[in-house]
Structures are given as C-alpha cells and as structure tokens.
Design goal:
This protein has 180 residues and is mostly helical. The protein contains five helices and two strands; from the N terminus they run H-H-H-E-E-H-H. The longest helix is centred in the last third of the chain and has 35 residues.
C-alpha cells in the first residue's frame, strides 16, 4: 500500500523551512532596527551572524527536501476537490517558492560577502572570502535580497491561502503534510 502523505522526513523539512523563514522575516526587521555598530557597540554581530547562518543552512535544507520529495513521492491526490488547474497552480507555487528561497539566500550571502564582516557558519566554519568589501555591490545584492524576500512573502501567502482553502474543504490535501 502506497503512503497517502509525504514522508516523515519531507514533513519535518517542510516545517523546518516554514519556521525558519518566518523567523528570518521577524529577525530581519528587529536586527535592522538596531543601532549601527561602533567600537563600543558590537551587539549587532550576533543577530546578523544568526540570520546568515540560518539562511545558509536553508540552502542545504531545501536541497535535502527536494531530494526527499523526488526520491519518496507520495501517492497522487485522489480528491476530486483538487482540480487539474489547482494541481498545476500548486506545482508552480512550489517551484517559485523554492527558487525564491534560493535567490533570497544567495543574494543575502553575496551582499554579506561584499561587507567587511566575515561569515562564520554556526561559529565554527569560516566561509571563504569571495569578494572585497564594496559598498555599491553590497547595496546591489542587498536590494535583490530585499525584493526576493518580499516576493517570497507574497508567494508564501498564496501557499498558506491554498492550504487554508483545502483545510476548510477538509479534502485531505492538508493532512498529507501534517502527518507525523
């Protein structure tokens, strides 16, 4: 008998991505509101480093999620509530979400690479410096990071709206990603 829902690993990775993205949005508003660093005030280092660490980790998590999703596909949707155009829209939504997550993470890393601050992954592994500090390039990639993040927020809103729609229909679509 084929499973109806996604694998436990896919469910855990999905929710890890969701919680992490939510945290990154909230933390970015908070950390950007902190005063600029000075010799006396270096407290911005921790929140920025945490933000970068989670973003870098998300690239690995999404790669693992895609591997798991393609390796262990769930049974096709049998519900009549999921019309073919809805299935296509859900597929496009997922592809755009994955691409925007990657674009946001990569542009964030490239923005950071053009600052004078190093990136140390989880305070253990120092990322190689791929660029010299350059304020114009930092701002360029920072703008891309900002706009891809806002686009991601919009597409996630569509994704959540679809989930809420299917939850109210009680058609089994949402249960596929809620199993433990």
């Amino acid at each position: 008998m084929q499973k109806q829902g996604y694998s436990r690993t896919a469910v855990i990775l999905h929710w890890l991505l969701a919680v992490s993205i939510f945290f990154l949005f909230i933390s970015s508003w908070w950390m950007l509101g902190l005063p600029l660093p000075s010799k006396e005030m270096q407290f911005r280092a921790f929140p920025f480093q945490l933000h970068k660490n989670i973003g870098i980790t998300l690239v690995l998590v999404i790669a693992l999620l895609l591997y798991v999703r393609f390796k262990h596909r769930p049974a096709p949707v049998t519900s009549t509530a999921m019309k073919p155009w809805m299935h296509k829209l859900a597929t496009v939504d997922h592809i755009i979400i994955y691409l925007l997550i990657l674009a946001t993470c990569v542009s964030g890393y490239l923005s950071s690479a053009h600052t004078r601050w190093d990136t140390v992954v989880w305070w253990v592994l120092e990322m190689p410096r791929i660029a010299e500090a350059n304020e114009d390039m930092n701002e360029f990639y920072s703008d891309i990071h900002l706009w891809t993040a806002w686009a991601l927020l919009g597409v996630v809103a569509v994704h959540i709206s679809g989930a809420i729609y299917h939850a109210f229909l009680n058609d089994g679509i949402v249960r596929r990603m809620m199993r433990w």
